[in-house]
Amino acid sequence: MHNRILALLALGMLAASVWLLTPGVAQPPAPTVTAAPVVPAGRSAVAVVNVPQVFRDSKELKVLNASFKSQAEELKKNIDNRTKVLTDREAEIKKTLDADSKDYKERMKDLQTEWVKIRVETEEKQKDMVAEHQRLTEQFYSKMSTVISKIAQPDGYDVVLYKEDYAVKDARSPEELLDMIRQRKVLYDSARADITKQVVDKLDAEYATAPK
């Protein structure tokens, strides 16, 4: 029972400290363009944003991740303390009582109830943490999308693409390599097309002035 609780706790901590970025699904080939778009000299009409980097560098998400990590550590500490109490109690019962006695069976039954109670409470708290993490992730993504629009529109960008944060290499199989290639949305971008830092800076500026 103890090992099951610890396994559940580890799963919850992982869910509460890791911000999930789902890779994109491969899209069908783009239609043939008959004429090249007219863009101002020295400017690309297409921008890119390294979304995983935004999630890593944003001050707001750093604060939120630290908060979730603290909650997970506090939950683990609480579970460890309660587990130790029950483990010590079980050892004492086994040491002092006859396993065939009525008292032994009743006290072990009570212990089993306590173990179940800890497991249920742990699962509920982890469920709440994951739900809150998802809500805040969706909220942040919405903020990021709004900020991207605020930057792209006045700067004349028509399209802003999701830029992956990984290189297509070190695949463990041909199938995995093809999957990595299919998921990659940006094959090349110049420095002037990357507005990631602008997005992070604006998000941080808005976070700094937002009510806490």
What is the secondary structure topology, with strand pairs?
Elements: H1 2-17, E1 46-50, H2 51-57, H3 59-96, H4 102-152, E2 159-163, H5 174-183, H6 196-209
Parallel strand pairs: 1-2
What would the keywords be for this entry?
6 helices, mainly alpha, two-stranded parallel sheet, 5% strand, 212 residues
Task: Provide structural commentary.
It is a single chain. The protein has six helices and two strands, in the order αβαααβαα. A two-stranded parallel ribbon has the order 1-2. The chain has one domain (2-17, 40-209). The protein has 212 residues and is mostly helical. Helix 1 (2-17) runs parallel beside helix 4 and helix 4 (102-152) packs across helix 6.
